[in-house]
Amino acid sequence: MTVVVGLTGGIGSGKTTVANRFAAKGIDIIDADVIAREAVAPGSDGLAAIVARFGTPALNPDGSLDRAWLRERVFSHPDDKQWLDNLLHPMIRQRMIQACAQASSAYCLLVVPLLVENNLTSLAQRVLVVDVDEQTQIARTLARDHVSEQQVHAILAAQASRAQRLAVADDVIDNTQTEAELDRQVDALHHTYLTLATQANADP
Predict the structure, then answer these.
(1) CATH number at residue 170
(2) What is the pLDDT of residues 122-139, one digit of tens each?
(3) Are 110 and 96 in contact (CB under 8 A)?
(4) Residue 23: exposed, middle, or buried by beta-carbon count in 10 A (0-12, 13-18, 19+)?
(5) Of 27, 136, 150, 194, which residue is 20 to 30 A from 98 by alpha carbon distance?
(6) Are residues 40 and 23 in the same domain?
(7) Which residues are annotated as part of the binding site?
(8) What is the domain range of residue 195?
(9) pLDDT tens figures, 87-122
(10) Residues with Cβ < 8 Å from 30, sequence gap 6 or more?
(11) Residue 204's pLDDT is what?
(12) pLDDT for the residue numbered 147
């Protein structure tokens, strides 16, 4: 049995940076964002259902999903957002469960930005939160995504608060420190998770 560690954190916290460090240790990474993209890829049941509801305006000229159009649509039509969530969330959840079951490393990381918001903590045996203060989130997101500060604040408001994430955390990585300190924290947790995995597989 592979122990599943749910990795989450707010926008700009450095989830990908942390996940990449675990990946470098040979740990399987299951990324919810990648799975969500696959669920609406050309030829998928997800995309077919979206086109059946919204028609060709939901598509780019190459037949792929026009994400910007769909985001705009569901933002201004709550019923459509509810429909889309009802379509995609169960589909993505099932794919994540399958991917975790197929992981070959002693433990795997399930990287889910909205782990808390979408009540997905039950998919993991441990929850690891990558934590930074809000000012750091804002500064990093502005530098990375080249969006307005107003937009960053809107994203933060739509996500779980820092306190809500920390309330469900079994483990926390403080990602405001030096690279060396980040490595130290990852190394310590890696050993913890390997020990947990050994115990889990030893239990009758």
Answers:
(1) 3.40.50.300
(2) 999 999 999 999 999 999
(3) yes
(4) middle
(5) 194
(6) no
(7) 12-17
(8) 1-27+106-204
(9) 999 999 999 999 999 999 999 999 999 999 999 999
(10) 96, 99, 100, 103, 108, 109, 110, 111
(11) 64
(12) 82
